[in-house]
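Second opinion, please. Pick holes in both lines of this record:
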Amino acid sequence: MIPSERLKGIEAFVTAADAGSFAAAAGRLHLTSSAISKSIARLETRLGSRLFDRTTRRLTLTDAGAAFYETCVRVLADLAEAEAVLASHRSDIVGRLKVDVPVAFGRMRVLPLLLDFAERHPNVRPNITFTDRVVDVIEEGVDVAVRIGTPTAWPEALGHRYLGTERVIFCAAPAYLDQHGLPRTVDELATRDCILYGRADGSTIAWRFGDAAGGVEQRTMDGRIVLGSAEAQVEAVGAGFGIAQLATWLIAADLQRGDLVEILPGQATEGLPLHLVWPRSRQLSPKVDALLAVLTEGLRVE
């Protein structure tokens, strides 16, 4: 059966179920009662199921009809939404826009782009959440999310766009290196003061060491200071308390100013991949489409 055939009779069926009679449905659709009756009869024949129990006073959905009704209502609503989205492409970018971002990355890298977007589109109402937990984009009504890391599999309901992979390096303040010396090997690095990232459960993030062949070794280090915030790590390193392994996006400005310097560059590794994520049902929305373009351009990792 061609797809268009499947839609025949659905509007008449849903309207009749809502109105409670063929006559009332005919009035709402500006058709005759006979046309409504024949349309639903053809639908029942095609489906091989009776959809209504008919009496002289009222129509009542059968069990099969009730189940089919729920599906049809959803299909018609999806079609109406798709038409509204396409029509809205001819209008301004307006409305609520919920965006979820990681805490540190969101504040430092994403927020400036979002504020600029809001300034250029004053009829948009951004609602921005900052969280490092994995947000259920669809369940929590998120229009666009920025994700660091990759799930084992992307749900079919989500669109996603890869923006690149962060680089993770070892760094320290020049004053610390002047006092303690520049470590030139991994073993020497292990004897220095390590500033580690700590999880809520008390564990710490292992350091990753790369090699010329592209291999990566993980080591659990002893930390002089353990902090549950990447931004706090940057402050501690800058204050001369030791060495940390940090993503370059987090310390780009510090490196450029010379407040921090990279050490053991041959041991640097790739970090986590960066993605934009959105519900596929909203990807035709002008505001979502426009924001995806801005974030893609602004956040792409070369």
